[in-house]
Design a protein that fits this description.
By secondary structure, this protein is α/β, with parallel strands linked by helices. It has two domains: about 5-235, Alpha-Beta Barrel (TIM Barrel); about 250-305. It has 14 helices and eight strands. Strand 7, helix 8 (about 200-210) and strand 8 (about 210-215) form a beta-alpha-beta unit. Helix 1 (about 5-15) crosses helix 11 (about 250-265) and helix 5 (about 110-120) runs parallel beside helix 6. The longest helix has 16 residues, at about 250-265. The structure holds flavin mononucleotide.
Length: about 300
């Protein structure tokens, strides 16, 4: 997630080994293939065989509408060590969409086919090439034709965020469409959207019947969530050990301290780390109230910010 799951956050969230893999924030590809330095800055894990510090594979996500440049960028990513390529056809940001990137491509199944085909051809067959789709631009029924296009082009799997672009992040999330796509057996389907806690996951599991799930905001808001889900998926039991979502400042403290340590490996700007911590807690508040955020919000220096968690 752009601006959220950067390298320190990926390192933190994968430390328990609950994720099969993670995906970078999108790297935008326009009419130029980004230089090597940009890949290394965007994906520091390339310097570690494309693994997070605890050994979870990192897939590089590319975003754009130029099939040739995307194919070159995919080739460059893999030459630098990327473990896989994910293509973003879901981003709803107007500036991105105006520049022929993200969800705007959902209007053109032929272009999805062309992009996935070119990227597939550009990288060795053992490297997965996946596509991240929303259900459509405005019509959720477009998902069927779009998935058929990316499957025919050779995508390894498709991750479906079960909303249209026009919905943005508004409810409802149409998990039922994911089940219908899965039942067509075109290719493996990863379910995504609004899994905020373990109960949501169970509902999504029962509705979609998928084997794999992509957890975005919920995984950041509750760093224990992926562990509960991965235990369930391996054991297929309804009584997983549920990691309680951190609530009080002291529940959050170990995560925050670890995040600061990991962030300091990448930045010498404490004010940036403070911003990220506030953003993180705010995101968690989309699922549950954290009234002490008001106090956190007013802090300015990293020391003041960490004081909030010292209680
Ligand atoms: C701030 C933000 C940034 C995002 N950036 C990306 C991105 O770079 N690539 C991507 O595929 N999806 C991105 N997404 C979408 C998420 O991956 C996911 O599809 C969406 O949030 C729904 O899943 P969730 O409810 O589990 O978060 C972003 C979402 C948010 C809220």
């Amino acid at each position: 997630m752009e601006g959220v799951t950067d390298a320190p956050m990926r390192a933190l969230l994968t430390e328990k080994g609950s994720f099969l893999f993670c995906v970078t924030e999108f790297l935008r590809v326009t009419d130029q293939t980004p230089p090597v330095s940009v890949f290394h800055r965007h994906i520091p894990e390339l310097g570690n065989k494309s693994l997070t510090s605890s050994g979870t594979p990192v897939l590089v996500q590319l975003l754009g509408g130029n099939a040739q440049r995307l194919a070159e960028s995919a080739f460059r990513s893999v030459s630098l060590g990327a473990k896989g390529i994910d293509l973003n056809f879901g981003c709803p940001a107007p500036t991105v969409n105006r520049h022929d990137g993200g969800a705007t491509l959902l209007k053109f199944p032929k272009r999805l086919f062309e992009i996935v085909s070119e990227v597939r051809k550009a990288v060795p067959k053992e490297i997965p090439v996946s596509a991240k789709l929303r259900l459509g631009w405005s019509d959720p029924e477009d998902i069927f034709e779009n998935v058929e296009a990316v499957a025919r082009a050779g995508a390894s799997w498709v991750t479906i965020h079960a909303r249209t672009r026009m919905q943005g992040y508004a409810k409802p999330v149409f998990w039922n469409h994911i089940r219908r796509v899965r039942e067509l057996n075109f290719l493996p389907v990863v379910a995504n959207g609004d899994i905020w806690n373990f109960q949501d996951f169970l509902k999504c599991y029962e509705t979609t019947g998928c084997e794999h799930y992509m957890i975005g905001r919920g995984a950041v808001g509750n760093p224990h969530l992926a562990t509960s889900i991965s235990r369930f998926l391996q054991l297929k039991t309804h009584s997983p050990q549920q990691g309680k979502a951190p609530d009080s400042p002291s529940d959050w403290r170990p995560f925050i301290e670890r995040f600061v340590t990991l962030s300091q490996l990448h930045t010498d700007k404490p004010e940036y780390i403070v911003r990220r911590i506030k953003q993180w807690v705010k995101l968690a508040m989309m699922e549950r109230p954290l009234p002490w955020f008001e106090e956190l919000k007013r802090t300015q220096t990293l020391e003041e910010c960490l004081q909030t968690f010292a209680v």
